């Protein structure tokens, strides 16, 4: 049976899910600062960071959730959302616990805000995950539900194991991460969906307790300095980040700094966590945002979390409807196996390998046998 933590230093006296990390620096006052994200938690012995899964043990920062998960599921790749990456294929998806942001509108707060890592019932080592994904016909593994930034050592090892097995790896993240940690997290990733939560520093500070600039840096890094296929999601929250001006600013920045071929998804908010007093996003808001983005010159703009065939269709620059979707279901597919428009032959940006998958919209929870805890 494969070991749980094949390549990470174990921590003396700690459980099998705790590994040493390279992301800490000693301060003059005796504390150790975690250097994974700009939160820069400064910890004394035994303290945990804001994300709760990274902690101080002795003279280092450790990750306490290596190999643990809130559960494994097979999802459609469109659910990440990724519309230009192996369309129609199943992806083995999982998250752990904790998050390094503190969004008042969190849509996954039961996982991301969980402080009960002892109740993370599922466990799997990287090789075991990759082998399971392959056996079940998945084309990729996704780190999702909570942000892989906080469990980057585990995500990074799983991504390497996926590649080794001939699969791809996907990160779904808020992009709030420092450069060194970012480099390790994305070294073996093939695709990412980055949440761009709004487009003002004021929104990021007040509602997500983070900074917009860091996320923009991550986007520029991914698009210009790596081969990671990148799509962007903005959850539109009525009255908070959905003004015409803010949406126009975001789209203009994407067009200028990332290019007009980077797909952008506008998704619908539902009242949750500390924002239960805000109404759900009306479909008309998503359609308005999409129009603004198209006017700004972005070529691939989608609506999400609603039924909207027009807003979920990939259209070629020649006007041909190439991939017609209804939520996560593909109803028409007119892209060649190597990613070209079936009508004019233009290349569709993204990762297209062979025919579309036929996984459909279903979500299938799976169980993986507990690993060896050597
Ligand atoms: S990763 Fe966690 S512990 Fe490290 S700085 Fe960010 S929130 Fe703090």
Describe the structure.
Residues 84-305 form the Radical SAM core domain. It comes from Glycomyces harbinensis. The protein is built from eight helices and 20 strands. A nine-stranded mixed sheet has the order 16-15-14-13-12-11-9-8-20. With 374 residues, the chain is of the alpha/beta class. The protein folds into three domains: 19-63, no CATH class; 68-307, Alpha-Beta Barrel (TIM Barrel); 313-356, no CATH class. The termini are close together. α2 (126-135) packs across α3 (152-164), α3 runs parallel beside α4 and α7 (244-257) packs across α8. The chain is globular, with a radius of gyration of 20 Å. α4 links the parallel β12 (168-173) and β13. The model has no long low-confidence stretch (mean pLDDT 92). The structure holds iron/sulfur cluster.
Notable characteristics:
single chain; 374 residues; alpha/beta; TIM Barrel; 3 domains; 9-stranded mixed beta sheet; 3-stranded antiparallel beta sheet; 22% helix; globular; binds iron/sulfur cluster; AmmeMemoSam_rS
């Amino acid at each position: 049976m494969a070991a749980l933590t094949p390549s990470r230093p174990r921590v003396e006296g700690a459980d099998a899910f705790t590994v040493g990390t390279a992301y800490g620096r000693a301060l003059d006052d005796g504390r150790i600062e975690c250097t994974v994200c700009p939160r820069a938690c400064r910890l004394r012995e035994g303290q945990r960071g804001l994300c709760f899964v990274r902690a101080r043990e002795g003279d280092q920062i450790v990750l306490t959730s290596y190999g643990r998960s809130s559960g494994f599921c097979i999802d459609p790749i469109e659910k990440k959302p990724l519309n230009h990456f192996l369309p129609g294929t199943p992806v083995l998806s999982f998250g752990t616990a904790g998050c390094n942001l503190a969004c008042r509108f969190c849509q996954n707060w039961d996982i991301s805000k969980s402080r009960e890592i002892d109740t993370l019932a599922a466990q799997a080592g990287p090789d075991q995950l990759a082998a399971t994904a392959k056996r079940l016909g998945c084309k990729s593994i996704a780190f999702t539900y909570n942000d892989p930034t906080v469990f980057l050592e585990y995500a990074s090892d799983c991504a390497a194991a996926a590649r080794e097995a001939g699969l791809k790896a996907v990160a779904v993240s808020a992009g709030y991460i420092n450069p060194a940690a970012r480099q390790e997290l994305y070294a073996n990733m093939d695709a990412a969906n980055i949440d761009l939560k709004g487009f003002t520093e004021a929104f990021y500070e007040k509602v997500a307790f983070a900074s917009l600039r860091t996320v923009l840096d991550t986007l520029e890094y991914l698009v210009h300095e790596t081969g990671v296929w990148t799509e962007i999601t903005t959850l539109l929250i009525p009255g908070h980040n959905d003004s015409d001006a803010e949406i126009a600013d975001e789209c203009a920045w994407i067009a200028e700094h990332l290019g007009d071929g980077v797909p952008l998804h506008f998704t619908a908010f539902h009242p949750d966590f500390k924002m239960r007093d805000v109404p759900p996003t009306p479909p008309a808001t998503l359609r308005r945002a999409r129009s603004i983005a198209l006017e700004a010159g972005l070529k691939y703009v989608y609506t999400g979390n609603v039924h909207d065939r027009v807003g979920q269709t990939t259209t070629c620059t020649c006007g041909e409807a190439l991939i017609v979707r209804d939520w996560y279901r593909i109803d028409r597919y007119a892209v060649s196996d190597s990613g070209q428009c079936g009508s004019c032959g233009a290349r569709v940006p993204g990762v297209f390998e062979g025919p579309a998958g036929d996984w459909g919209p279903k979500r299938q929870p799976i169980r993986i046998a507990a690993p060896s805890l050597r």
